[in-house]
Amino acid sequence: MDHEKAFELLPGYIDNELTLSETVEFEHHLSGCAECQRALESQQRVSSLLKTSNLQFTAPDELRARIKAQLHPRKSLFQRLAHWLPSWKEGRRSSWAPAGAMVISVAALMWSGMLYLATPSADVRLSQELVDNHVRSLQLNHLIDVISTDRHTVKPWFEGKIDFAPPVLNLAQDGYPLVGGRLDYLDGRTVAVMVYRYKLHAINLYVWPGNDAGESPGVHELQGYHIAHWTDGRMNYWAITDAGNSELAGFVKSLRAHAGS
User: Fold this and answer.
1) With 0-12 CB in 10 A as exposed, 13-18 as middle and 19+ as buried, what is 250?
2) Do 22 and 136 belong together in one domain?
3) Burial letters 93-107, b for 16+ CB under 10 A, else e
4) Count of domains in the chain?
5) Element (H or E) spanning 195, and its range?
6) Are residues 155 and 255 both part of a single domain?
7) Does the model's pTM come out above 0.70?
8) Where are the alpha helices (DSSP H) in 71-176?
């Protein structure tokens, strides 16, 4: 994380408004950056000063009355329409009614459109949930429930705990050794997680049933983590790691090649 990104997150960090993954990134940067430490201490001092009673005062009643007298609050669109529509004369109401209904319909459509555009897609929401889950597994020492490099140990461990049999492969010969597995909760259901390593980097592979048509994997980045997603017509696969883009792409290629064989 660079200084510009750290300064953007600083107010949210002070107000406890950051996500778990953003907090981890910010604190990691903060631990090695004296400039950001000074900026944090400065803003914390300002926040403390603003909360002290000697900086607060009560406005005199006379001043409050003068300000209120000069204010002309702007009515909302629906308030103006509600005031405007009843004022029509009875003889003109029938001719203006369609126009008024059209105005209200357009306003409602615009509002619905803005809400739709502001709502993130299912894949975007799932990617953010995946990042938070991955970070939490590393922080809370919940990376592995069953520790083993033997797929014949890891695969039977899932039996009776979930209602599907996840594919478990050891890719040690390709540089991605299996180190264990665990159960987790993602996208509203219990999922199987196989844990792999690439050098010092953990790779979490989340698997659960899905009947979507086979979808080729795509790799994208979110908050410094690389994420891959694909389906094979029977299972959904999501892989995440802090290793590089090419390293994750190599893992996915190796996994799909061994699963196909």
Assistant:
1) middle
2) no
3) eeeeeeeeeeeeeee
4) 2
5) strand 189-198
6) yes
7) no
8) 77-84, 90-118, 122-139, 151-157
